[in-house]
Amino acid sequence: MNNKMATMEMKKLILSMAFPIMISMLVQALYNIVDSIFIAHISQNALTAVSLAFPIQTIMIAFACGTAVGVNTLISRYLGEKKEKEAIQIASHGILLSLLNGLIFALFGIFGVKWFLSSYTSDPEIILLGQSYLRNCLLFSFSIFIQITYERIMQATGHSVYNMVMQGMGAIINIILDPILIFGLQMGVTGAAIATVTGQIIAMTIGIWITKYKIKEIEFTMKNFSLSFSMIKNIYEIGIPAILMQSLLSIMNLFMNSILVSFNVLAVSVFGIYFKISQFVYMPVNGINNAIIPVVSFNYGAKNKERIHQALKFSLFLSIVLMSMGTLLFQFFPDSLLFLFDANEELLKIGIPALRTISIGFIFSGISIIFCSILQATNKQNLSLLISLMRQIILLIPLVYVLMHTFGLETGWMAFPLSEGICMILCIVLYKKKGSAL
Question: What is the pTM of this model?
Answer without folding.
Answer: 0.71
